[in-house]
Design brief:
Layout: H1 3-16, H2 24-30, E1 36-40, E2 43-46, E3 51-54, H3 57-60, H4 69-79, H5 93-105, E4 112-116, H6 119-135, E5 146-150, H7 159-164, H8 168-171, E6 182-184, H9 191-204, E7 209-214, E8 218-219, E9 225-226, H10 230-241, E10 245-249, E11 273-276, E12 288-292, H11 294-298, H12 318-333, H13 336-354, E13 360-366, E14 369-374, H14 384-394, E15 397-398, E16 405-408, H15 416-437
Parallel strand pairs: 3-15, 5-6, 5-7, 7-10, 10-11
Antiparallel strand pairs: 1-2, 2-3, 4-12, 8-9, 11-12, 13-14, 14-16
Helix pairs in contact: 4-12, 5-12, 9-10, 13-15, 14-15
Bound molecules: pyridoxal-5'-phosphate (PLP).
Length: 438
Amino acid sequence: MTPEQRTALVRRDKAAVWHPYTQMAKYRAETDPLVIVRAQGSRLIDANDQTYIDANASWWTSLLGHNHPRLVQALVRQSEKLCHTSLAGITHEPAVRLAEGIVEVAPRGMKHVFFSDNGSTAVEAALKMAVQFFAQSGGAAAKKTGFLALKDAFHGETLGVTAVSDVGAFRAAFEPLLMPVTHLPSPADGLDRALVELEKELASRRGEIAALVIEPLIQGAGGMRMYDPLFLREARRLTELHDCLLIVDEVFTGYGRTGKFWACDYADVCPDILCTAKGLSGGVLPMAATLTTSRVFEGFLGEPERAFYYGHTYCGNPLGAAVASEVLSVYRDEHVLAGTLERAAKIAEVFLALGRIPGVESARSVGMCAALNLGQGGNYFETAGWDVYRLALARGVYLRPLGNVVYIAPALNIPASELDELLRVVADCVEEVARERS
Ligand SMILES: *Cc1c(COP(=O)(O)O)cnc(C)c1O
């Protein structure tokens, strides 16, 4: 792309494209966006042939790197046969194979797979399943329509999941429309208090609460807040005790981000409903799945009106499903999880050291995810993280922050040399910004 072509494209972009999570006035006046034309492995390549290490695997999706040849081949092969059909009264091999494949790797007890097309819909479906499940379970349980969630939770953007989420910037404009949800103290702020409050709430509102919704181990968009797996085990025990469903949102943590295939695996926990997206299709196509136990599934059998009257146009899309099955094969054939051990140790070492420098409030890591806070709080409108972003970009690293939280969540198979470079750039840029601010 010539410089003139690039300039023209940016002009057209600013006239027609409304970007997500973006103040468009500022964007149109000041931002010279990256114009990405290709991507390969852990790198994005722009219109000037400049490469950038993708420190967040393109919004946490490209866990096997960009354009993995086997995923591209699976997509091409499937596209020559069948691109799309509905999943109503119809089935196809890609959907069946993927459902079986996910069940095989899922926590034991997950038996049925409901497809949709993004993380928000995976969780939205889970919320509706929980309410309808109790509504038709007979007796007093039919009154269970409430949800418990955690402070600083993020579960997506549709109205239902906005209500169970707790990131102020994403909720503020819609508060009057959101269903009431109790947001309990996050175990990231203290395990004991979180457990005490959870137990109290579940016991005192036993007849009302349909489900507890949590991001296991890492609260992602709320600031990469990490917590002890013991919370998962206890959350499972307590929800069972009080006949409340446990919905685990593995949209970010699933597919090995934390070092095990599911974050739930750290506590050997099987939820009632598990939501997955992002890594599921390796950053190739939008694809999501909501997994349930037999108990939940069987709650919908019987008369016509007991069915789950819910679906999305692209449920089980054959292209996405074919790619997602290939993702599972690549994890197996390339021993992707085993490969994260050494990488995760390196990441932990660097972030631990960064946590000790003045100006860095706290640092943490689990598996292939690490984060640190420059200053207090994870507010989205803080700017320290963006200072790091600009410095890193000039050195060939794309490192989008969450306010003043700087984090990395690279491809799980990022080559060692690129991981070293990424960590060096993160360390240098964080040190520079921390020095200026302290
Ligand atoms: C990203 C994310 C979602 C929403 O997924 P979308 O595909 O953006 O709708 C839901 N839950 C968690 C934990 C996420 O990280």
